[in-house]
Amino acid sequence: MKITRWISAALAVILLIAGGFYWLSMNHPSPNSAGAPQGGDFTLQSADGPRSLHDFRGKVVLLYFGYTFCPDICPTTLTLIGQALSSLSPAQQAQIQGIFVTVDPARDTAQKMKAYVRYFYPGLIGLTGNPQEIAAVARRYGVVYRKHKEKSGGYLIDHSAFIYLIGRHGKLRRTLPHGAPAAAIAAALRQLLQQP
Amino acid sequence: MLSKFASLACACALFSTAYAPAALASAASSIRISHPYVTAVAPGQTNSAAFLVLKNTSAHDHALVSASSPAAEIVQLHTHLHVNGMMEMRQVKQIPIKAHSKTMLKHGGFHIMLIHLRKPLKPGEQVPLTLTFEDGSHQKISAPVVKLSDTLKSMPMKMDRHH
Known about the structure:
- The structure holds two protein chains of two kinds.
- Chain A is globular.
- The longest helix of chain A is centred in the N-terminal third of the chain and has 26 residues, at 2-27.
- By secondary structure, chain A is an alpha/beta fold.
- Chain A has two domains: 1-30; 43-194, Glutaredoxin, CATH 3.40.30.
- Chain A contains six helices and nine strands.
- Chain A has helices at 2-27, 73-86, 90-93, 110-120, 131-140, 182-194, and strands at 43-46, 49-52, 60-66, 96-102, 125-127, 145-149, 155-160, 163-166, 172-176.
- Chain B is α+β, with helices and mostly antiparallel strands.
- Mean pLDDT of chain B is 83; it is low at 10-23 and 154-163.
- Chain B has one domain: PCu(A)C copper chaperone (Immunoglobulin-like, Sandwich), CATH 2.60.40.1890.
- Chains A and B meet through helix 2, helix 4, strand 6 and strand 7 of A and strand 4, strand 5, strand 8 and helix 3 of B.
């Protein structure tokens, strides 16, 4: 009698845990999820101290996620971002802040991020944080990433590669696909600059 | 007896010459390599990639199966996959070069990945590369290091228009 009670209690606990995992998996943002990312404020670390999205209120913010070990996708996109920003007038450039957030905080220190992003465009800011902070920001913007272990012992990171454009009031306004040419990035920025 | 042996030896020699890979058109001699380059790296970037065009001038399918370079500790053949909005980079066993056609190694697609560069790559430098094909034949080339911004002007990357 006592044993059956124990078993049913154990079963209930297992069911609860399984249900919890199921719920979590259902709520985990998947790359296919139809819901558009909400965006929103965040605070992460730069080499020159913490930086928050709200520090740039009044400016248009271009946000991109990647990592410095990335051999092709990130450098290519950052080069296109640099070309887009360089093509704008100095007055327009002054109203835009480009931000690169690492999805590899274990390897990308704030100092490393700073030296890296400046190569592509002098005004870019590189941000890192602890894995939980990075995950929270990524979730808010619909960024997905996961480690892929290599036989050589190292790892690469699969990641979504959208460019996020945030309006002057801190709201996510546009998402540009991977491979958007510099001219398209510049046009989207100009359009956002025209909005109050 | 001696002459019989000699002719047998001769026949053997002929046979082996005729069937040695060197006597057939090797993959390396059928593949023309053009527009090679390696992208210069940003500070702190320890990986880079080599890009080029492989043209198969023969009537047989060939494949690039490996590459090596003194510039990096590990050299691998990779491709990019765009899966559910996620860019995945994966090692591939080979890069096919079909008969009478071209395979382009380009941004966002097939590339030769240079992992753990022995020193940062600066524009103007040359990177020696040895490309090995499916029959073991190989070609040595030298690829210039170029700024990524210069390559993107002349060669638009693969576009993915899913959204």
